[in-house]
């Protein structure tokens, strides 16, 4: 039986939401602008992120881009016009208010967020690829830090997603000394979980998402929250959090069924 598909977007929206069973997909939908981030898409992403977070049936969120690129990052036409008009602070501040709210939501939500990257992921687009919990990339994907070249520092969650994975020295190298790098290089650095042929990206993303969605919600939410707080939490406090999460999970039907199945194997 096919899984029912629900959409809550119009075809010309700057970002689209599709829900198929426990898997939601947000598609960046500005192909003519290489899915660059402007105020319109930032607001839409904030709205769609909140919808996904509130839906208890969703276990995995996939983020992808339509067209030739995953995302070219911040919309430089918008930002350039603001620079000319000397309105950078209000214009970029408003854009980042909504975009950063989306980033905060995907890091906070008790669901696994999987970015599916093809073509170019530059600037904030690279940041989005790696601020997701996991990333799968096509062999042709290229990651471009871009910030230093135009004289700015990273935004859009770029340091949030990268520093915790690669460490401070590698992060400085990426942001200040790498023009761009391949999916294979990103995988070696631990930023990409899987690299697949470009023609297989959609199918491989779906397979990966389905595997992740096999985990019960209590396992996904508890593991995600514990993993992210582990590096900044004192040992005793982290152990207390582990105790709280595992006891909560042990009260679920999924745990009772799984344990009964496991313990009956040896009989």
Summarize the structure.
The chain is of the alpha/beta class and 267 residues long. 50% of the residues lie in helices and 16% in strands.
The shape is globular
**Mean residue pLDDT:** 93
- Note the main sheet: 7 strands, mixed
The total of beta strands comes to 10
CATH class of the largest domain: Alpha Beta
- Rg: 19 Å
Give the SSE string. EEEHEHHEEHEEHHEHEHHHH
Distance between the termini: 34 Å
Give, in spatial order, the strands making up the sheet with the most strands. 1-2-3-4-5-7-10
Helix content: 40-55%
Examine the secondary-structure arrangement and name the CATH architecture of the largest domain.
Alpha-Beta Complex
- CATH H-tier superfamily of the largest domain: 2-enoyl-CoA Hydratase, Chain A, domain 1
CATH topology of the largest domain: 2-enoyl-CoA Hydratase, Chain A, domain 1
State the low-pLDDT regions, or none: none
Oligomeric form: single chain
**Into which percentage range does the β-strand content fall?**
15-25%
- Give the total of domains: 2
Figure out the total of helices: 11
Indicate the structural class: alpha/beta
